[in-house]
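Annex B. Sample input.
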Amino acid sequence: MDPIRLDALVATAADILDAASAQFIAGHRADSAVRKKGNDFATEIDLAIERQVVAALREQTGIGAHGEEFGGEPIDSELVWVLDPIDGTFNYAAGSPMAAILLGLLRNGAPIAGLTWLPFMGQRYTATDGGPVRDSGVALPTLDTSTLADSIVGIQTFNIDSRGRFPGRYRAAVLANLSRECSRVRMHGATGVDLAYVASGILGAAISFGHHIWDHAAGVALVRAAGGIVTDLAGAPWTAESKSALAAAPGVHERMLEIVAAAGSPEDHL
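Annex B, continued. Sample output.
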């Protein structure tokens, strides 16, 4: 895509997310409105922001959207926005500031732009393919090669007795191996926040055991634009079909893959 057009699309999308931020802030501690699988849920604010942002994107950019709550255009469309209206909904409902609005732009399934808004923190991350990453318009430096021992690492929360693709005991084994080399592990409870913080250099790495495209599209675009690396846990380049994600700065990523591999196969931990 022409870089000038892409920058214009991101600028328009940024205005749309700014407009949604007031409602996001006003709805802090909103109650559950829609129950999902397990103990997951959505609030009325999730639903309202998704409706507002999707309608504005379609009207102002001419590009359809796929949202967490209502679905929408296929993610392998030539161009499609992918929206998570509230990343970290449990945090948001509990009153924690670790919650965000995530918006990625996919071209034929590949992220080419990302926007991650943390309204309570005053952070507004944007990037297009090739970088740089910007926070509220200020360009951030590209990621330096670093070491795991000097890094903070984000990892998803889990239940030790959970099963599924990445059982709780497998996740615990990864965490145990990680703790031997990096004692600075954080569970923010918001995948998109973790990815944005990798892109901005706050975190050296982040592990996601999830597969939802709306959790990852924006952050993958940000990390790659910053010069970071994003694969799945097996080391294959991350795609929209990936079932996990490992994002990290150069140097850290290679060591993280070794630590994940040392935990063995997820099936060994059922």
